[in-house]
Amino acid sequence: MDKNHANDTAEQPAGDAISVLCDDHNRLRGLFKYFGQLKGDGATTERMNVAEEICKELLIHTIIEEELFYPAAREVVTDELIDEAQVEHDAAKHLMQQLIPMRQDNSHFCAKMAVLRESVKHHMEEEEEYVFPKVKSSRLDLAMLGKELLQRRTELRDELKTVGNLVGFQPVKHFVGKQRGGSAARINK
To answer: In 3D, which of 21, 88, 69, 19 has the Cα closest to residue 180?
Structure first.
């Protein structure tokens, strides 16, 4: 698997919201696994490149969840679960802000990537075990929400392409804080 695998499913037809988010989770798992299999010690150029791809994908995923999925999910899932997920996102964004500008000679690079991996793994497992089943069994229009998630994901990928390399760019500050309207997804009557 190469790091370009991360975008293999980006242009698939719209699925429901849970499928879209699980696709993101699986893409991130694959990227983290690939990162862990890279040879060499410390922050090699290839590790830096894969870490940057992980940060891009993770940033996009957190934004689409925060802007679209979480507001809709709050209608059917306890605020406590969504609040915890938001705090986990904040922790991941904090780590990304530290990782993105890191230089190759930074001795904490691999340690920070390991913490990010474990934090994201925990977050994905909780969503898949507790949040997604509740949303899936609700009357939310998951097909419409899935289309919105895919559209926003595409917009963000296009915006990040114009940025080029994330090194020296503060994507978390740039993207997070931009407020968008909530999801148009409504509960089916």
So the answer is: 69
Which tokens is 42 given? 């410390």
Which token pair is 6?
Answer: 């991360």
Asked whether 89 and 69 are in contact (CB, 8 A), the reply is no
pLDDT tens for each residue of 159-187: 877 555 554 445 555 444 444 444 444 44
Q: Tokens 């919105």 identify what position?
A: 148
Stretch (H or E) spanning 169: none
Average pLDDT of the residues of the chain: 81
Whole-number Å distance between alpha carbons of 122 and 126: 6
Q: What is the DSSP letter of 3?
A: G
Cα–Cα distances in angstroms (integers) from residue 103 to residues 38, 94, 169, 179, in the given order: 18, 17, 13, 31
Side-chain-facing half-sphere of 60: CA atoms under 13 Å: 28
Residues whose CB is less than 8 angstroms from the CB of residue 132 and which lie 6 or more positions away in sequence, other chains included: 18, 21, 22
Spatial distance between the Cα atoms of 128 and 2, rounded to a whole number of angstroms? 25
| 3-state helix, strand and coil shares in percent for the chain, rounded to the nearest 5 | 70, 0, 30
CA distance 48 to 25: 20
User: Judging by beta carbons within 10 Å of its beta carbon (0-12, 13-18, 19+), is residue 89 exposed, middle or buried?
Assistant: buried
Q: pTM to 2 decimals?
A: 0.80
- Rounded CA gap, 167 and 158, in Å? 17
93 HSE (CA, 13 A, CB side): 20
